[in-house]
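Hello Y.,

Per our agreement to keep a running log of every chain we model this quarter, I'm adding this entry. I've kept the format consistent with earlier entries: sequence first, then predicted structure.
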Amino acid sequence: MSFISVKFGALLAKLRERRATIESLIEESRADSDFFLFLIFGAFITTIGLIENDAIILIAGMLIAPLLLPVLAFSLGMVTRSFDALDRSLSTMLMSVIVVTFISFVTALILLDGRDVVLSRFTNPSGTFALTAFLSGIIASYAWIKQTTTTSLPSVALTIALIVPLSAIGVSAAMKDQELLYSASILFAENFLLIVLASILVFLLTGFSTERRFVEKVIHEEGKKQ
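Predicted structure for the entry above:
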């Protein structure tokens, strides 16, 4: 009897953990004014870091930009087969891509003043970039589920994989460099897909595929509050 109680308690704890993750992820990935404020400043600072080739400025931009959250929300929507979650996260991601590239493009037009910058190390797809994106996607998803204090560490790695190539797209467009623009676009798409694949794997292995109704319930309740 005690074994059954322990087993039931463990299952209940995992259910609570999953649902707490769903609630916090949907809450934090909401495309509100705070989200876009951080995104705009993150894109602006990252673009300056690219132009000046300054790693410290780049890291500052990565810490600010909240690009991880809609990506994880999209993966959650895929795993739970929730069209509401997919529509919500895709909309946020699309707006984020537009905002970041636009801010980077305008910032580069203002600051470049006709000069070119070297972006090749930030725009060339490679096995190292791909492995970093995939492994960071795994650990970031797991850390988010566990709600650990170390969530910010893999989040920074994921932001590197996303906002840097996005900002490089804007800078390349400002320099009218089609080759760099193409490479940065490929790198962003590749990293995005690898991060989504990694987080889908983690969400599947931790039992989120059964939580479609709860995901949609949380989204609907969020809509009523707005």
